[in-house]
C-alpha cells in the first residue's frame, strides 16, 4: 500500500489531522495515475493529483445536506501508485492488489483515476468481496469494444472486461459508440443502457435505471459523462451529457436506495489555466460521500 499524505496535503485539506489517519478514517482515497491507451487527448494521468489539489478549495459545509460530512467519517488520502514499467495486465494487477488490501481493512474506497482502464482493477477486488455486485457507469462512451487498437486492456474496452466477469451493468449518459457495442447491448441480459437522449426533463429515468441494479452497487464516474459545459477537460469530450443537477439527483437517489460500496472518478485531462473540471469533480466526490453519509452507507 502507498504511504499516506498528510491532512493538509490530502483530500479537502481539513484541519483535524487525526481524521486523516488510516486508523481513524472510514474513507480512503487512492490515486491511480495510470495512462497508456488514451486514444484522443492525453493527460489523464494528471487527473488524480489535480482533483486532490482542487478539493482544497471545496467548502467543508454542504448546504444541501446541512452538514460538514467529513467529520462523520474521516478521509485518509494515499500517495499515487507508481506505474513505472507496468502496463496492461501488470498495471491492472497493481490496482487490484491495493484495492483488495483496503477492502480487507473494511475501508470505503474512493478511487481517483486516469484512463478508464483502471476500473477493471477496482472491480477485480470488489467482485471478490461482493460476488453479486452491480456496476453503475456514468459515461459518454459505452466502453464495450472487445479490444481497441488491438489492446483488450484499452480504456475503450474496460466495460467489456467487466461484462466478461458476468457482472450486471447499468450505463447512463451514453452518446458515442460503435455498432458492435450497440449489438452487444442488445444481445446481453446483463447490460442496461440509458442513452443521453433517453434522459428526459423529468426524473422518471432515475428510478428506472436504479431498478436494474442489484442491492450492492459500485459506481464508476467518467467525467465525460457530464456535458462539456460541466466538465470540459476530459480525454474525449462529447456534447449532450448530464447536467450537474441530473448527476447529483442520480447519485443521491442511488445512495438512498442501494448499498453503494465504493466509487471512482476517472478521465479528467487537466488543462492549463482551467480548473473547472477538476474542481467540479472534486466537489462531486465530496457531495457523493455526503449523500452516502446521510443514508448511513458510510
Number of strands: 8
The CATH topology corresponds to: Arginase, Chain A
Q: Considering DSSP H and I runs of 4 or more, what fraction of the residues is helical?
A: 25-40%
The general outline is globular
Overall average residue pLDDT:
95
Cα Rg: 17 Å
N- and C-termini, Cα separation: 22 Å
Quaternary organisation of the protein chains: single chain
Can you name the CATH architecture? 3-Layer(aba) Sandwich
Text of the CATH class: Alpha Beta
Largest sheet: spatial strand order = 2-1-3-8-7-4-5-6
Topology:
Elements: E1 27-31, H1 47-55, E2 75-77, H2 88-104, E3 108-112, H3 118-129, E4 134-138, H4 158-164, E5 168-174, H5 179-187, E6 191-195, H6 204-210, E7 216-222, H7 244-257, E8 259-266, H8 276-294
Parallel strand pairs: 1-2, 1-3, 3-8, 4-5, 4-7, 5-6, 7-8
Which characteristics define this entry?
single chain, 298 residues, alpha/beta, Arginase, Chain A, 8 strands, 15% strand
Report on this model:
By secondary structure, the chain is an alpha/beta fold. It has 8 helices and 8 strands. It has one domain: Ureohydrolase domain (Arginase, Chain A). The protein has helices spanning 47-55, 88-104, 118-129, 158-164, 179-187, 204-210, 244-257, 276-294, and strands at 27-31, 75-77, 108-112, 134-138, 168-174, 191-195, 216-222, 259-266. Strands 2-1-3-8-7-4-5-6 form an 8-stranded parallel beta sheet, with helices on both faces. α1 (47-55) links the parallel β1 and β2 (75-77). α2 (88-104) crosses α3 (118-129). It is globular and about 50 Å long.
Amino acid at each position: 500500500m502507498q504511504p499516506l499524505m498528510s491532512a493538509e496535503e490530502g483530500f479537502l485539506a481539513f484541519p483535524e489531522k487525526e481524521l486523516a489517519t488510516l486508523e481513524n478514517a472510514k474513507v480512503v482515497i487512492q490515486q491511480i495515475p495510470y495512462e497508456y491507451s488514451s486514444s484522443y487527448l492525453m493527460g489523464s494521468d494528471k487527473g488524480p493529483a489535480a482533483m486532490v489539489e482542487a478539493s482544497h478549495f471545496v467548502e467543508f459545509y454542504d448546504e444541501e445536506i446541512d452538514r460538514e460530512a467529513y467529520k462523520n467519517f474521516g478521509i485518509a488520502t494515499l500517495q499515487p501508485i507508481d506505474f513505472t514499467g507496468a502496463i496492461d495486465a501488470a498495471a491492472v494487477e497493481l490496482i487490484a492488489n491495493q484495492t483488495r488490501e483496503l477492502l480487507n481493512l473494511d475501508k470505503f474506497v474512493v478511487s481517483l483515476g486516469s484512463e478508464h482502464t483502471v476500473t477493471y482493477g477496482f472491480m477485480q477486488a470488489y467482485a471478490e468481496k461482493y460476488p453479486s455486485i452491480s456496476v453503475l457507469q456514468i459515461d459518454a462512451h459505452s466502453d464495450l469494444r472487445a479490444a481497441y487498437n488491438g489492446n483488450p486492456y484499452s480504456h475503450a474496452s474496460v466495460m467489456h472486461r467487466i461484462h466478461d466477469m458476468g457482472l450486471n451493468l447499468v450505463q447512463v449518459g451514453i452518446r458515442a459508440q460503435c455498432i458492435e457495442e450497440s449489438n452487444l447491448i442488445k444481445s446481453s441480459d446483463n447490460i442496461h443502457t440509458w442513452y443521453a437522449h433517453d434522459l428526459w426533463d423529468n426524473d422518471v429515468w432515475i428510478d428506472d435505471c436504479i431498478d436494474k441494479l442489484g442491492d450492492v452497487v459500485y459506481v464508476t464516474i467518467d467525467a465525460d459523462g457530464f456535458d462539456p459545459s460541466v466538465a470540459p477537460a476530459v480525454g474525449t469530450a462529447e456534447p449532450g451529457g448530464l447536467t450537474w443537477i441530473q448527476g447529483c439527483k442520480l447519485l443521491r437517489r442511488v445512495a438512498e436506495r442501494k448499498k453503494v460500496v465504493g466509487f471512482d472518478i476517472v478521465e479528467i485531462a487537466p488543462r492549463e489555466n482551467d480548473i473547472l473540471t477538476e474542481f467540479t469533480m472534486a466537489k462531486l466526490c465530496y457531495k457523493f460521500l455526503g449523500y452516502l453519509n446521510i443514508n448511513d452507507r458510510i
